[in-house]
Amino acid sequence: MIRFDAVTKTYDDGTRAVGEFSLTIPSHRTVALVGSSGSGKTTLLRMVNRMVDPTSGSVFIDEDNVADVDPVALRRSIGYVLQQGGLLPHRTVLDNVATVAVLGGTPKPKARALAAEMLERVGLDPALGNRYPAQLSGGQQQRVGVARALAPNPNILLMDEPFGAVDPIVRRELQTELLRLQRELGKTILFVTHDIDEAFRLGDEVVVLREGGEIAQCGAPADILASPADDFVRHFIGLDLGDEARTLTTRNVDGQRIVFDRAGRPLGVIEE
Asked: Which residue segment(s) compose the domain that 49 sits in?
């Protein structure tokens, strides 16, 4: 579980990135923070692994205040996936994935064997392990980034717009891969994106942010789509775009109200 308790962040130049923000992210669930530039979503994500310290308030993992944890040890215990992978260009793919395990004291041969297993888990041929990041496609690099984050078997995975730099087809494939991995592994995932469709597809819960980290609405994708909190949310999720608006339908299935998009894909269950 991750808990933000009234956190704020004001930078030295006076920029207020996050006002008072409180949120609990349940264990083994995926929560997507979605908002435009200036909404504080990346700042909030980086508070979890202390790449950013809040100006006030606290962040807890389970019952532990992260401010009381050594930042290096904290970061090694949390998976972190960046846009464009954040891979070390001078190291092979295999050594990139093995990096955290080696830093944690795992002998290099064992860490590299684990890295090969992780490459397979994210759908890559372990033979790619001998290549360098520049020799991979963008989608392959992102898969390597996910493999590296998963290698130390963290309970928490932080993902900062990880699929934003690839083309739409590859992005969809990577989203599908993440959904599969989450079904298998059950991590606690905090996912940051500016893409509402991505947030709705990946998040068990979606948090729509206004500027400065103010929560405009928080809930299951189907609930937000069925009942946007206000005009800001309605506009952000695209329900006021005329002919381009999302066409939603609801049907009762086995006693539950299911929301479907205009292509007939189920988006989730409306909680009564």
From this structure: 2-219
